[in-house]
Amino acid sequence: TVTDNPGPSATRPPLRDLQTIATGMRAWVLAANKHPGGTSSMVEAMTALYFSGATHLNGTGDGDRLIYSKGHAAAPWYFALWALGAFPTTSWQDLATFGQVGHPVPRMPRRGAAPGIEMSTGALGQGLSFGAGAALADRRTGSSARTFVVLGDGECTEGQVWEAAMTAARLGLANLVALIDANGSGSVIGLPRQEWAARWSGFGWRTIEVDGHDLAAVIDALHTTQAGDDAGEGRARPTAIILHTVKGKGLAPAVEGSNTLSAEVAPEHLPVLDVATLITDALTVIDRHHPAARQRRTGTSAIRTTSRSVPDRAALHAAITGRPVEASAVAKKCLAAELAEELSALPMLWMAPDAIRNSGLLARMDKAGSWQWDNPASDVLQCAIAEQDAASLAAGAASAGLIPVLCSMEGFYWRMLDQIRQSIAFPGLPVLLVGTSAGIGDLLGPMVQSDGALAALMAIPGLEIFEAGDINTAKALAVEAISSGRPAYLRLPHEGVPVRHDLRELADRPLQDGAWTLRQDPDPQVVIATAGDMRQVALATAERVATELGRRTRVVEIVSPTRFARLPQPRRDAIVPVAAVTASIHNAPSAVLGSLLPDGAISIGVDGYGIAGSPLEALYREAGLTSQALFDHIARELR
């Protein structure tokens, strides 16, 4: 990758050159007229970040990284990337129409739209968590890169921002810098611009306040962040730069600084500028200091990118060990504990929000210690009770090259749905989410009951769903997920279950269908679909249907409902013939498996709320999921 930005140094381009760049950038930002309030207030900061030499940001995706969390106001970032050649053969006029259908540049940043765009932003509040994950990964892998996160002050009213602020300070992420655009306005409400420094300092951050339109002051602040800790203290901690700015800087006096500068402004409030000349002047300066930029913009040279490699499935299977078939019940927490040891040669990051004992990672954490700035080699991260932060942090770590596995009780995934959708699934980042305590039966009651969490996760596009019925199947499905290089959710049984499948046999078993047959009949009259730890009760029910009702019966275990749903109809019909009576048995919402079967299927599941307590047998009786209740239900339908 061509990297012509010299990065941090004792010298900088002349201030007049940087002012020329900022003037051209602001002219384009206002001409584009997309959220001009929060875009024009960031012009000087973006100029300093990309063109002053105070950072290793250079528009190539190599070196430092920038997460533009206030994605609705990304126009100045787009200009900086465009000027450095990230959008080749695109004119500034074409760039100004970004966000239209078919335009290569999205309205809000989308991962991969250009080199250097690592996070899909726009769902406010998630960028700092993502940046913390990337900064953690860089420290873990020995990279000297810094991560800069641009936040709006309105965005800082999101609770996840403060989850991330606490996490970053606790971990001592000295390579993380937040830039807060303190323009004093949310969408329509005023914000206390003078209080931000005290708030960030109170959360353990080193805090610097500057006039966000004073280029020299912003550059000095960026140079100061290179140390990463306070002189005399020696304490590693992240840095927050509070940029005191004017919303709509450069607009007509009647609207400059207004709280209502969202979307676009009326033409009469835009300044009369020679936009073409100002942009040409800016590019002349940029090309003088960044010789490769012009060649990239015109397409005569390109930014070289490398694709991410994913672990080989066969190699992963060779590294893991299975339990003997028919071994005694194995607890769910054994999965993470054993895989963490077996896959220790990989750049894994094992995570658990708070209740790390439930994940099985406690012994490993006791051995290696939880990840901290001064313990960078550890592959275990004890997260706080901050599930939303943990999900976006995992995404950032994945973006920077780690393989995160986040373990949590299934009920807590309710809290992470938007973070999983926006930070992980939409950009397709390879994070494995492991759900424990799935189904019914937790003694802690409705607060941790999974209820419909699986159905909600199923609704997230791009998230592969797997469900395991024993420890060996769980390992095989974890390998499948990790080797796919895609985001996935793995559902584990609530209780320990005996080993049902041989791991070596599972390694050779194709998983593209997302299903395999547990009880075969070449011409079934009844097909029962099941998943997870319901497999044994489904088999017992099928046996009674066959022997007592005289119906030829097939049982299919759905190990990936998302893969099964994508099968061509002829293949699905071969597994579940349309002529057969079909039923689904699941300790999740009945629609999860029922929606995969032909119309008129007998869908049996858990569709109520808060079924919890003990003993477990009583709960399954209440839910109608005992073998007797299931047989009676299906028999009534067949008669």
Structural account:
One of its GO terms (molecular function) is magnesium ion binding. InterPro entries: PDH/Transketolase, THDP-binding, Transketo_C/PFOR_II, Transketolase-like_Pyr-bd, Transketolase_N. It holds the Pfam family Transket_pyr. Its cofactor is Mg(2+); thiamine diphosphate. The protein is of the alpha/beta class. It has 3 domains: 15-298, Rossmann fold, CATH 3.40.50.970; 313-508, Thiamin diphosphate (ThDP)-binding fold, Pyr/PP domains (Rossmann fold, 3-Layer(aba) Sandwich), CATH 3.40.50.970; 515-638, Rossmann fold. Helix content is 37%, strand content 14%. It contains 26 helices and 16 strands. The strands form 3 sheets. The chain has a 6-stranded parallel sheet with strand order 7-6-8-9-11-10, sandwiched between helices. It has a 5-stranded parallel sheet with strand order 1-2-3-5-4, sandwiched between helices. Helix 19 links the parallel strand 10 and strand 11. Helix 6 (127-141) runs parallel beside helix 7 (159-171), helix 6 (127-141) crosses helix 16 and helix 16 (387-399) packs parallel to helix 17 (417-425). 55% of the residues are buried. Mean pLDDT is 90; it is low at 1-6.
**CATH topology of the largest domain, what is it called?**
Rossmann fold
Number of strands: 16
Give the tally of structural domains.
Answer: 3
Walk across the major sheet and give the strand order.
7-6-8-9-11-10
The global form is elongated
Helical amount: 25-40%
**Can you tell me the CATH architecture of the largest domain?**
3-Layer(aba) Sandwich
Q: Which structural class fits the helix and strand makeup? A: alpha/beta
Radius of gyration using CA atoms only: 28 Å
Largest sheet: 6 strands, parallel
H/I helix tally? 26
The poorly predicted ranges are 1-6
